[in-house]
Design a protein that fits this description.
This protein is of the alpha/beta class and 439 residues long. The chain has 2 domains: 181 residues, NAD(P)-binding Rossmann-like Domain (Rossmann fold), CATH 3.40.50.720; 239 residues, Rossmann fold, CATH 3.40.50. Helix content is 29%, strand content 16%. The strands form 3 sheets. The protein has an 8-stranded mixed β-sheet, sandwiched between helices. Helix 10 links the parallel strand 12 and strand 13. Helix 1 packs parallel to helix 11 and helix 4 crosses helix 6. It is globular, with a radius of gyration of 23 Å. It starts with 6 loop residues before the first strand and ends in a 5-residue tail after the last helix.
Amino acid sequence: MRKNLVVGILKETKQWEHRAPLIPRDAGWLIKRGIPVEVEHNSRRVFSDREYRKYGATVVDRFQKATLLVGVKGPQVSDLYKNKIYMIFSHTIKGQCENMSFLKACLAKKITLVDYEKMVDSRGKRLVYFGRFAGVCGIIDSLHYLGKKLEWKGLKNPFSSIQPAYKYKSLKAAKLAFNEVAQQIRHQGFGKNLSPFIIGITGHGNVSKGVEEIIDLLNPIEIHPRDMLQFIRYQRKISHKLYKIVFLKEEKLRSKNGKGFYFEEYLKNPRHFESNLDNYLGYLNIFIHTSYWDKRFPRMITRKMVHNLAKKELFRLEFIGDISCDVNGSVELTYKTTTPLNPTFTYIPQKRKFVDGYKSEGITVLAVDNLPAELPKDASIEFSSLIREYVYQIAAHGVRDLTRHMAFPAEIRRAVITEEGKLTRDFSYLRNCLFEKQD
């Protein structure tokens, strides 16, 4: 008779990482169902060792019995255990060069690697994610630093009272602060140079929903992109409102040959399309980017686009919150990722030059690549509720070769990247990435 696997909760070692994949209450939920839980000691974790012990987990310096190791980010290569199952965000599925050494180590140590990012339903919809909190923290930080930049320029604005997300004790506290900002917009509004104040948002997934969850606290009026020019022409005096535009695919993109946008054609031949945002970007005060991107798809914002727009008389864009955070990706200005302590840099189109921080003319970019960690407790609670059933199913089956057992849900089997020292079939394309020369 198979024995249940012991679950191990990994300590997080990446900078600024305080989240937990399973919270103490859900560790107790597993234990009540016959799944033992070990927890690697970590004083940085948002939940204390004492809280895990209270629910029956064993706290250890190194795992003793655990086989199914559950984390958020991948551990250091030197800390990997051989012949274990890891459930993490590995950040390898796009062939990211900086993470290929980690993937090689998983193969060498015969690790079964399960990546949350590939736990999707039959339509490809993500089932396990921190996306909502990436959006929540991303828009909080973006408006905070936009407010600081506008202050530096001598422009009074209602965002001056907003703090970075990591300074709020909870999402509830952040939302209370935004309710106060909404009152300030209603009573004091925006100055002449900032009106009408328009936020543009891309994406319709969990990240975008997190952004809108916060923006909607400010009681925005939504306008359609096709009404942009007319709106700008006639609404300049409307200063006590905030406006948002959510760009659909057919508004973000256009065919290079002028045939119009057809989604099916775009999926088949994405290189036949290009960004359509040059028609809108110059009218926005702030642009928030949340859409998925990889090398097959056109960029949404290019340097050439920015250079051309910056020459025009009306160019209002001050800030880009690149929450998707692909280096040299969809937003070509994102030439590096940033951290919560050094979150922004500014691109000066006229000089073709980047400078750190926001105290400069030009377009300021926020590109923090670990945003959900800024509200670690709330983010962990939601994430734990999404994964605990999957953790239970793997542990209760008591086997390590996950892809061979049809009893596992397809969303688990689809997410297995490596098994028994080999790449699984769906991820065989990563073989070429493993041996590409790294810069």
